[in-house]
Design goal:
4-stranded parallel sheet, 6-stranded antiparallel sheet, homotetramer, alpha+beta, about 30% helix
Chain lengths: ~400, ~400, ~400, ~400
């Protein structure tokens, strides 16, 4: 939105949102925030995460006469709130969220209050910032820096914060559950300049690389990151291993992140246009190539082949997390099991597929050491141990037609 | 929508809609048709008319937990349908419309059926057409001509027609009420090439002019229509009076109809850019200037002054309907009483305001003679006799915020 | 351009232009006005007409080192001006136009002066208007009415008018030639509310209809115009013949004029979507159908068939100009001879093709009587007598590649 | 351009171009490539660089009757070519470029040939690539990688390469002059993955950092690059100094490069939105902050202040080139002398302005050692020694109005 239009907006509360659709399709009608009319007045919502019982709840709500305007799981929460006869938006939200299972970091708003809510497991991050007299809520703390606001603290798992003219209040109205913040935020998803779950992201990533250097050393001439996903882990690896760090691959800044691009054909083309080898860094060298994860294996295979064509003598791929073997049901848009190469191939098979001279992943122990809180994470994508059970049917089947 | 996109659409049922918003504001979220998910599956709706108890119904529905995504009265109908536990869309619609008062010609659709519904008074038109094996529903029959479909018949007041693979069925499930089709459709609103309420519109308009010539003759040299609203009545006047018909005003086709343009400033400018006098037709002549109605009087005043500047010797304004004194609550976007010049001024005062040499309106009797069914019309805008009571509060106050 | 942007423009001289490309293709680079830098400073030009020796001149200019940025014949004039070492823009224009043959009504501008120029034959119109202290130039006088400016007079054939801070001066610097204003402006091209070549257009068109009624009477019940091209001639015919005038065809205002739409497929579809028959006017009637001309015959054939389907008992087509047998090289975008049905078919053959009960054209004498100046017109499209010879090669072959 | 449109294009020769306008304003009419019609047929041109005698040549050409369609210096070349009566495009180009002084890497094309031309000084780069059977020309070799083409060689200063169906030929038709390729391409302008003037850019930049560490060592805890302009020099500095390299500033990828953004207000805002400090890397540390150059000083001042606010204990700024004291007239869009902080301030004054604890620039000797060819560069922006004299008047004054 242009500056001029922003300036014209009145009022003291607002929500903005960018969500890569994980449930329901990417259509205008699913664009958040949603703004609706209810018995509690106008209510707006923005949601980061993924509900696990949305299909069942929606069927139930429709049976009771609800009208759905989108295919998003988020709308289910609005209906549950609208149905509550609690006297306040926050009480209605408590009542609504008692019925919901899954991952949700929510920002809810009516004309008077701004609520920040994290599910009891705390899968996704949500943090509180401060700008002059006002409070802000953001998925990632780096948003505060852009606004020259200050990071105050994380919203805790299960916490409801309520911001209004009186200031900020806090409550934990839902039954407590063992926290399970998403470990993949640290590995890949969060912005490196954010604080997530009490840790600074780029620091964690360098630590992942340092531990990877300990676990999987190799004799080499240069450590090269896959830009931009591997740069912090690669720097940590280089520092840990005492091998020079260098930019053997240059990224074209006109293209976005590979992982979240919606269409296969674009993603494929994306890689080609995006990365350029630097022959002077690679030629005749034994290269440690560092990335955060391997999803399908096709991108890594292309990069390895590109480095070889640019003269690399040996290519040792190092991945700063364990093999990604299970899909995420809590809001990261990973592909299905079938598409995850590590769910059906051994490390040696993957190495052969991507044609690296060696391949090593960080151990699960290493991962937990780096993030610093041994027990408290959801690492289902690596372990298959899902903190909240998910339904057998595909959760992404919310449809209007 | 471009031809290529239309061709790609699958399926055998569809709704399109253009509605000038009369209740709720003109925003994207109020654009029809609406498509929502309900217990009856996906339901789409398009609505011509205006509900009178929408504010109360919406308040009630919200109190019961409904979530509203728009500010349109039409959404109320969708919620009533969604709440019905009737076994079919048509039965749910019957149940829903029992609770609704006001003017509605509806097209409703689910995956299997297309419903056409007219309220028991039949305020707004709705007609059935046929194209090859298929049926069509349209507000005005002229839409069929464009598609080379044929006009079959009007949907009757209170009738529900149901179109599906079996063909077309009809029912009258709501309590019958005396029909009250909108007489102003004939005077101004409908397209001249349509059939509305069993009459051909342009024929009715010429008849209005012919009767006006009988009721309010004048010695003159030429009959000049205000384009395009007055051309049929002017032609009828000319034929009835035996005075030559001629184009003394030319309309710039780049500009739309004055009456329905949303913003005052545009409408004002609209008139200036829209009409050009033809001096050769006007100079030294005694002109009968014919239009369908006078709303605020400002447009007529400008036209009279324009004709005088172009040399007209006398200007006798003739209006092919009675003075418009009351606002419409049934779907025509007339201004409030305060803005209707005839609600507070006599004919002579209006004449003086618009600066015509004489001014005459068609009588109510004349109007009824021309439309051909003496009793069966809603003429509330002329008489103040409203067939369906409307609430005291402003019906246009549906708001989200 | 939006009002806000217009208001921000500085300065006291300006040119705007809409030209249907007749030579060179319809590309952005051919959009007028052109603004270029020359030894005479910045020069802008807008051109209505068509040059006949543009291909030869351009070849010559290129041989002398000229750089052409467009495929338009208009750019040739700019180069001739730029090459002139005359001391003023007007003298340079005189020098340039000595070398040019063909049809041109030009508006030329530098930082100080606005020139209006009509070629010695005066093929295309150009008129002078006045708004407060300022002068205006426009192809058609109706533009002045929209701006509430007043029509002052036509620029004469061969006249150069120069408008600057001193006011308006006039000169006739080119060798005089017999004037040949385009008769087809009166028949079809000009807007009905304009004055063109000293005549009011809608008046001329009614006169064409009146003379047509004299020349080609027929017993009938109703005179129906093809909207909008035939309405004035039809009104004249009805008045002359004493047969009632009525609207048997209604035009959909969302679609533009048929003649000038650029693509065949659109034009074809255009007719279907554009015209609707009014059964009540046509059914059982003997209809005089009036239009201004028949080009390919396909449109007339479709209209006749549409009227028959709507119940017309007889259809007598009357055309308010002689058969169009020759293409125009002076700026009207008529099709080639091969596509003009009248160039290869007799009137009776055309009647059979369009399936009318009778068909008559206005005579050449009739046409000249209506426009009022027996000798002084170019009627090449009807007679094949071209006032300015045109080259054998296709004049529309200006190309960059 | 979308893939589908690209696929539809016919032919075997093409030019695309992105040029930040340095002479003439940034308007659509100045967008390159230009395509014009001339005696040599259609000619297209794309130009990297800046002509020094364009104003004088244009005045001369206008006096001879030339018509200019843009305000770009590039158009002057087209006119000189069009005026040449040489028998081929290449001979015409030779004749034209004899008259031109300044910096130009050109791609010229007619229907049969593609020419690549570098001015005798070779200010700007131009290289030849190969894709299957075809040749490519590009300003920077990294473009070839994106297309999976191979880099063949640089076009040499003063060289004309001609590509057609026969293959590639080469000539040196202009008087030889001492080469003066732009040293600033290596410092900042070129993409890091390109080969420019025989050197790999990222390698040169690391060498600049390494030499800077030798020349201006400092005791510190971490070397932090200003992203992205300083990352290679910072890496070289870190390697040279044996101090850990780390990312203390994270760049928001949604925003482009600071240097070339056209409007001041945007640039200012750009810095704020673009860079985020990473407190964990900075807090309590002695930081070496590395960038490629200081232009106005405002950006550096903001970054230093941002690092201090994030806890940096000491900030030692190191610049991998000498102070930028003179504007460039050969195609880099540097500000005027008055805006270049180093043209009027000593290093110590600049240090005080940006509020760093220490500040050092690379020496001119160091710069020359890193680029590897002691004599052969234009370093006018650092030395004020301009290889080609420029006119006293502002060269950026090409205007239409």
């Amino acid at each position: 939105m242009r500056a001029a239009r922003l300036r014209r907006l009145a009022g003291s509360l607002a929500i903005g949102h960018v969500r890569y659709s994980t449930t329901g399709s990417s259509q205008l009608k699913n664009a958040q925030p949603f703004l609706v009319g209810t018995r509690h007045g106008a209510v707006a919502i923005a949601h980061n995460g993924n509900l696990l019982n949305a299909v069942a709840l929606r069927a139930e709500l429709e049976a009771q006469g609800a009208v759905f305007s989108s295919t998003s799981d988020t709308e289910v929460i609005l209906h549950l709130i609208a149905r509550s006869n609690a006297g306040s938006l926050i009480d209605a939200a408590v009542e609504a969220l008692h019925q919901v299972r899954g991952a949700y970091s929510l920002v809810l708003m009516n004309e008077h209050q701004l609520l920040g809510i994290r599910d009891p497991r705390g899968f996704r991050p949500l943090s509180v910032g401060r700008l002059k007299d006002g409070y802000l809520l953001a998925s990632e703390s780096c948003a505060f820096d852009l606004l020259e606001a200050t990071f105050v603290r994380d919203v805790e798992p299960g916490e409801f914060v309520c911001i209004d003219r009186e200031g900020l209040r806090s409550a934990f109205p839902l039954p407590a559950e063992p926290p399970a913040p998403c470990i993949f935020e640290h590995v890949y998803f969060a912005r490196p300049d954010s604080h997530v779950f009490g840790q600074q992201v780029s620091r964690v990533r360098k630590e992942l690389g340092r531990l990877l250097a300990e676990e999987a050393p190799v004799e080499a001439d240069v450590v090269v990151p896959v830009p931009d996903s591997g740069i912090y882990a690669a720097l940590g690896y280089a520092q840990g291993a005492g091998i020079p760090y260098d930019y053997g691959i240059v990224r074209n800044h006109y293209v976005g992140r590979t992982f979240i691009e919606p269409q296969k054909s674009i993603r494929h083309f994306g890689v080609k246009i995006k990365l350029n080898p630097v022959r002077e860094v690679l030629e005749g060298r034994r290269v440690v190539l560092v990335d955060d994860s391997i999803v399908r294996g096709t991108t890594s295979r292309k990069i390895v082949s590109m480095l070889r064509a640019a003269g690399a003598r040996e290519i040792h791929m190092r991945i700063s997390s364990p093999p990604t073997t299970w899909p995420c049901y809590y809001g990261i848009d990973t592909p299905t099991r079938r598409e995850l190469i590590a769910s059906s191939h051994t490390v040696e098979e993957i190495r052969r597929y991507i044609q690296a001279d060696s391949l090593a992943y960080l151990s699960h122990q290493g991962l937990l050491r780096a993030v610093g809180k041994g027990e408290g994470y959801c690492a289902a994508c690596f372990t298959g141990v899902y903190p909240v059970p998910f339904p057998v049917e595909d959760v992404s089947q919310l449809r209007l037609l």
